[in-house]
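Researcher: Structure for this, please.
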Amino acid sequence: MVTANDTRVIDAEFAVYGPIGFDLGLFVGNLLISYFSQPGHESRPANRAEYGQWILSQIGEFWHEFVSNLKHYGVRGEPVTDTRARSSPIHLRANRSRSSANGCSAAC
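Model: Predicted structure, token format:
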């Protein structure tokens, strides 16, 4: 925002109200940037490798918690009681991956 007397910069990530995928992708992207920047913060070679691995593990932790909460609370933050929600794409994908691990080709 620019006027004759003032200039203000707003971070694009905070200036948008958009799809949830944008926020999720932005968060994961920031974790990845942090991971790949670790060598530049090292005082000696490989002294931040363990921290880098922890950063990567947070992506899986975050995604697991997100999906778990979305399944439980739904999109509006209310507990999911409607049985039709069980046929949501997320639920079907989770069943499909479990099924294929057990040798079942259909959503069991």
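Researcher: Any notable elements?
Model: DSSP finds three helices and no strands in the chain. Residues 85-108 have pLDDT under 50 and may be disordered.
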